[in-house]
Fold this sequence. Notes:
Blueprint: H1 18-29, H2 32-44, H3 48-76, H4 80-90, H5 98-130, H6 139-150, H7 153-172, H8 175-202, H9 207-215, H10 224-236, H11 244-249, H12 258-286, H13 296-308, H14 312-345, H15 350-370, E1 379-381, E2 384-386, H16 389-417, H17 420-427, H18 432-464
Helix pairs in contact: 1-8, 1-12, 1-14, 2-9, 2-12, 3-4, 3-10, 3-12, 3-16, 3-18, 4-5, 5-7, 5-13, 5-14, 5-15, 5-16, 6-13, 7-8, 7-14, 7-15, 8-12, 8-14, 9-12, 10-18, 13-14, 14-15, 15-16, 16-18
Amino acid sequence: MVNVDVHVNYVHAQWSSRWVFVLAATGSAVGLGNIWKFPYMVGQGGGGAFVLVYLICIVLIGIPIMMSEVLLGRRARRSPVNTMRLLAQDEGASPAWQFVGWLGMATGFLILSFYSVVAGWTLAYVFRTASGLFAMENPERIKALFGVFVTDPQQVLAWHTLFMMMTTIIVARGVRAGLERAVKFMMPVLFILLLALVFYSMGSGGFDAGFEFLFHTDFNKLTPAVILGAMGQAFFSLSLGMGAILIYGSYLPQQSSIAGSTFMIVIADTVIALLAGLAVFPIVFANGLEPGAGPALIFETLPIAFGQMPGGLFWGTLFFVLLVFAAWTSAISLIEPAVAWLTETRGLGRVISAVLTGGLAWLLGILTIMSFSDWAFSFRFLGVEKTNGFFDIFDLLTTNITLPLGGILIALFAGWKIQRDHSREELTLRSHAGFEMWLFLTRFVSPVLVGVLLFYLLFGHYFNA
Length: 465
């Protein structure tokens, strides 16, 4: 075995404390999907029953794989690609394992390209709502406004460009001056905005209905599809498999507890998602709107409510500002792995690396923009009709294939290729039983369950037909 000291010649800076890492990783996990998808899944999946299944899946999937990503990142303190290359060499494993790093970095980059477009929509809606565009408008008009907006490439390109510039500027400033300073400001602001919206929702007239929708426990709704949905949410909601947690883990101080940090991230992510539900669904029910509108809830359903209710201009603007912060913290974690790889492998400065990465993601995002207008085309994916061309291709490729595949491979590498002594040294778990539990879950449980999820994502429609 080649003995490589993976701790020497640090390329990266470090977070100033464990708390900053928790804020950063939580910011990565809390994105646009948390604001509408998780609360809606809770409501439709049996309320408290879904939450219980979700928490079980977090213990069996989310926590072990997140600990594994942080372990790998901190042990090598490199970008995902170089982390996997160095650790494979150190552990006497095949050099092919560096493919996992490439897979994660490419996945995050691809997600960033279309995520920035959708985040640009959110940024535009801050100003659209603040201008009073939706005030006293009828639902058909509001839906038509969104349709006209997303099919206007010039408008969407402008907002996509602005959001990508915002993301690139933060990352270009470095770990301490850029990422750390940003998350120390943005995450508390996000939490304060969310609490303000929850407080407002309590007086909206629909709080009881919203609370009942979210937390009424009905085990009869726990179908196999709902349980698999909870399993998927436990995996996807934590930004696993895309290199973001791995690179953030590479900046974690050596004395910080990986297990303790992971638990705090999981708790914060879940609490914020549930608070988002308490902020959004009372407003939806108070205005007699459809809670199951999916992504349209943000850009079509809620503007109807904000346009009709007292103080809607202020609270609607506040809501979209909240979404921008959620999207922004996620985007900087998506771009960081590629930027780190360029700085350590190609010898480029962070500014040049950030501009190159952001610029390439911006260019790729144009395919998503045009997928809603001139370049839209339909195709069938495993028997399901898709209509938004490249956007659907990118989304399906990452969600259904590369993300779960990356999670499986990370668990297998951490569980089977890293020597037990090395894992125990990095995790610094006080309890031997705790370490053995992590190792058992990482080796046998997490990869199998994510494998089941991957199979369901690819072939589940055949069983649901």
